[in-house]
Write a structure and sequence with these properties.
Layout: H1 2-8, H2 17-24, H3 46-63, H4 65-70, H5 74-93, H6 102-130, H7 137-162, H8 165-180, H9 190-211, H10 218-235, H11 239-278, H12 284-309, H13 312-319, H14 321-333
Length: about 325
């Protein structure tokens, strides 16, 4: 392939087919709406911070929608899905400083994220199988075909969701709420409110950390990962206020999330392989190979959990030193 590019002086394109098509038609992608301020600083009220965070993640969600619809780059889907998660986390964290209908938006986002997640989960499995291409090629070809069919079905459902009246109403209504930016009641300064908001999430993480043992089921590890992610989402927008202590806590939580992410991916992959093997749609030899693959994934996940229990990030999180430094900084900023 290299000689062909060289001889014909071909160069990889820097634009997608979607962008190329728009250019040929003399069109430009729609620019995201101006919904108001997105920056966060220590002088702001908690309600102002809540709206700034929501505007930032909502803009990210909309920015990736074109790429998701086009379907060329799986990372577009991943980024849009993460934006919906961050939006849901912010809606829950700052619920008391937002209009009452914010609860309805959280349900809408959960529904949209589920449609995105169905496609993303298959993408993750396809990437994993691609890395195993040196194994049994015949088996993998059949598995790839089955997964591609499943992905096509999931993508059709996802596009139906993005084309639905529910999604259109959500975008219009949520945009209006963010433009107005009105809290239902006066909120205190973020530096006074944040210690309790962030602290409540830390207590949940600490409780899970202390309960974790070698006999804990995989679900407990996944729960810790989810709670750690929510704590990280709560902290990240406040890093500019709390500086290095917040940075260190966020980095620690990110490491824990990454360590446990492989565990969860393997568990989901094992379940998927078992399901495909028992579906009756594949040859017996392929079904047997899928069962063996599922068992291997389960063993690798168990090894990750055992290693995690001995890991430095878990010991640091359990010791609580990064949190103590952050808590001290938060209370100092609040004047306490």
């Amino acid at each position: 392939m290299g000689w062909l590019r060289s001889s014909l002086e071909l160069r990889p394109t820097a634009t997608s087919k979607f962008e190329t098509g728009l250019c040929a038609a003399g069109l430009e992608p729609a620019v995201g709406p101006d919904l108001g301020p997105t920056e966060v600083d220590a002088s702001m009220l908690a309600g102002e911070v809540a709206f700034a965070i929501l505007r930032r993640h909502f803009a990210t969600m909309l920015a990736h929608e074109f790429g998701v619809r086009l379907g060329e780059d799986p990372e577009e889907l991943h980024d849009m899905r993460v934006a919906t998660r961050r939006l849901r986390a912010a809606l829950k964290l700052y619920r008391e400083f937002l209009p009452r209908r914010a609860e309805r938006y959280e349900r809408d986002l959960r529904f949209f994220a589920s449609a995105l997640g169905d496609v993303r989960d298959v993408d993750v499995h396809l990437e994993r199988l691609a890395a195993e291409a040196s194994r049994d090629g015949e088996v993998l070809d059949e598995v790839f075909a089955a997964l591609e069919e499943r992905r096509a079905d999931a993508r059709r459902r996802m596009l139906n969701v993005l084309d639905s009246d529910r999604y259109e109403r959500f975008v219009a209504s949520f945009s209006g709420m963010l433009r107005r930016g009105r809290s239902p009641e006066p909120a205190g300064p973020i530096i006074e409110v944040a210690p309790d908001l962030v602290g409540s999430h830390y207590k949940k993480v600490r409780k899970d950390v202390e309960a974790l043992t070698k006999d804990s089921p995989p679900e407990d590890f996944h729960d810790l990962r989810k709670k750690g992610k929510r704590l990280r989402y709560a902290l990240e927008p406040l890093r500019g206020i709390y500086g290095k202590p917040a940075d260190k806590m966020v980095d620690l939580l990110k490491t824990v999330q990454d360590d446990l992410g492989d565990n969860q991916d393997l568990i989901v992959a094992a379940d998927l392989m078992r399901g495909l093997g028992l579906s009756g749609d594949l040859a017996p030899r392929v079904a047997f190979s899928l069962g063996a693959m599922a068992e291997r994934y389960a063993r690798e996940a168990a090894e990750i959990r055992a290693s995690f229990l001995e890991s430095r990030p878990l010991r640091v999180l359990e010791g609580g030193k990064p949190w103590k430094k952050l808590r001290k900084t938060m209370h100092k900023k609040a004047g306490g």
